[in-house]
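User: Could you check the structure of this?
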Amino acid sequence: MSQDGTDRVENVVIVGSGPAGWTAALYAARARLDPLVLEGAPSREMIPGGQLMFTTDVENYPGFPEGVTGQELMDRMKAQAVRFDTRVVTDDVVDVDVESRPFVLRSAAGDTYRSHAVILATGARANWLGLENEQRLAQSGGGVSACAVCDGALPAFRDQVLAVVGGGDSAMEEALYLTKFASKVVIIHRRDELRASPIMAERALNHPKVEVAWNTVVTEVLGDEFVSGLRLRDTVSGEEREMEVGGFFLAIGHTPNTAFLQGKVELDDEGYVITPGQWRTETTVPGVFAAGDVMDPYFRQAVTAAGTGCMAALEAERWLAHQEATGAEEPASATASEPV
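Assistant: Sure, the predicted structure tokens are below.
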């Protein structure tokens, strides 16, 4: 039974409330689908609105020439969706029954929702070191970030020594991107060999602005209002030292928020939702769609998340129309329901 105590069956339920979720809600609402958004509940790792809620200045989202804070951008997206009568429930989804028709979603609060279509937009959370000052400065805009492409061009990082922690391809890409703005980029890696592909490692190691601190881990992020340095420990000798930096970027991966989807829809080895069709958002379960970072381990940008949110809503609308037109009791295959 749903939160309002009825056995109502929704046209579409959107799970998640980042750029993908709110864009999907906007398009679904304007298509008269009367969408319901389960936006999630606040926790230590995630809050409604997604990762942009932890970002201060956003300068690369179209339409905001002076920039906008992540919180304001998410508030505006939500308000625009609500303006067209999107309904919002602040709760987490803990289980989805994809065998039932309609689909059945169960929330952490114990409520049950039934829906003909579902859009998964739960995003992915950046992996952090778990240091106290790291989290405080990241949330306050104090020079700690998990996205160099998002934040690296900000004026505060210009001509500074910037540190990137990580050893994979993502860390190399982040470091190379930051060389456009930094005086020097230091890659901090806990081993004596990078995990990155040979070509990416070569590009980073051969760049004149890039240095590597091998066999090194970060034990503390220094700074009050803005990061001023890092306390480091040598993993071989145990020796500790401090390094002055003007920015600290983490590139140790992301974890998609898909634990509740295990065994429900097909996931890749890292837990991202698989959408088999090229330029499509339908999952391996017809009628269940995915948008944003939960299905995108590559771009992970607000604007691309919003784009896939639009795509998912349009696909869901057309899929629902196909079901109504054909009177299908079971969802058609992904290839049987082409856009009209």
